[in-house]
Specification:
With 283 residues, the protein is an alpha/beta fold. It folds into two domains: 2-175, Rossmann fold; 188-277, 2-Layer Sandwich (Pantoate--beta-alanine Ligase, Chain: A,domain 2). Helices cover 40% and strands 19% of the residues. Helix 8 links the parallel strand 5 and strand 6. The structure holds adenosine monophosphate (AMP).
Length: 283
């Protein structure tokens, strides 16, 4: 596996491969890799001649300074995992490399409702930071296909929207959420949970799964209230939001008339660790 820290050497290497007709699959990450990330790498490997992973803890997408400081950084271990999974190129730049003009720069795109609800509402500036860094990374890697997890479903919607708006020549591939055996969605933040918090964390997915059984059989509002009450009964879980929304537009559902598009999205705190999850209610 080639490992680069500068844009210049990454570009040069990949441009050489592209000239030879290689298709390039790209997996952008913030590191502290787990099986969820590796599933994206594996998928890319089956569909492309070359797979590139980036590791960059992007400062501009953190609205909370403490969250940025505490974000796990495990580059040596990550590189080992990527090598073992057969990744071809790791690009792990510094913040100065990605933001030479300073961290205030960013692209301003119109996302309509997509960046105003849920994550957008509770993490102001987050999606501007995401769009900015993904756009920059696409410019460096020039991928044929880029792989994103449904775990961050709203992020996926933002990236698709950006690619459409800017007419970027890349196919966006959505990958299923990989979970621990007890249902907890894998996340780099899980390693920050205490033992007591970790034992309560699977309740999030359990409640979402029960919502799937109940969906369509009771009014949307009642289902939402049931789920919020259920999560709040677990001592250390604190809900930031729980929404039932349309999978395309993210608009909250009022009733079940377009139920096949219904998804539930939740953000829940355990101590100071914030976890998100979502599931499709009818698929
Ligand atoms: P992150 O490093 O958390 O920014 O995530 C990098 C990419 O991995 C994003 O596209 C995420 O949606 C994806 N990802 C994170 N966790 C999972 C998971 N449990 N299953 C599938 N994809 C994931």
């Amino acid at each position: 596996m080639k490992q680069f820290t500068t844009i210049r050497e990454t570009r040069e290497y990949l441009a050489g491969k592209a000239e030879k007709g290689y298709s390039i699959g790209f997996v952008p990450t913030m590191g502290a890799l787990h099986e969820g990330h590796i599933s994206l790498v594996n998928r890319s490997k089956t569909e492309n001649m070359l797979t590139v992973c980036s590791i960059f803890v992007n400062p501009t997408q953190f609205n909370n300074k403490e969250d940025l400081e505490k974000y796990p950084r495990t580059l040596a271990r990550d590189a080992k995992l990527l090598r073992a999974s057969g990744c071809d190129v790791l690009f792990a730049p510094t913040a100065a490399e990605m933001y030479p003009e300073g961290e205030t720069e960013g692209i301003d795109l119109e996302f309509g409702l997509l960046d105003k609800v849920m994550e957008g509402k509770f993490r102001p500036g987050h999606f501007k930071g995401v769009a900015t860094i993904v756009n920059k990374l696409f410019a460096v890697v020039n991928p044929t296909r880029a792989y994103f997890g449904k775990k961050d479903f709203q992020q996926l919607a933002i990236i698709r929207h950006m690619v459409n708006s800017l007419k970027l020549p890349v196919a966006i591939i959505a990958c299923e959420t990989v979970r621990e055996p007890d249902g907890l969605a894998m996340s780099s933040r899980n390693m920050r949970l205490t033992i007591a918090e970790r034992s309560q964390a699977p309740e999030i997915y359990q409640v979402l799964s029960k919502m799937k059984e109940k969906a369509g059989k009771m009014p949307v509002k009642a289902l939402k209230e049931w789920a919020m009450k259920k999560i709040q009964e677990t001592p250390d879980l604190r809900i930031e939001y729980l929404e039932i929304g349309d999978r395309e537009t993210l608009v909250p559902l009022e009733n079940w008339s377009h139920k096949e598009r219904g998804m539930v999205f939740a953000a829940v705190f355990l101590g100071d660790v914030r976890l998100i999850d979502n599931i499709e209610l009818f698929l």
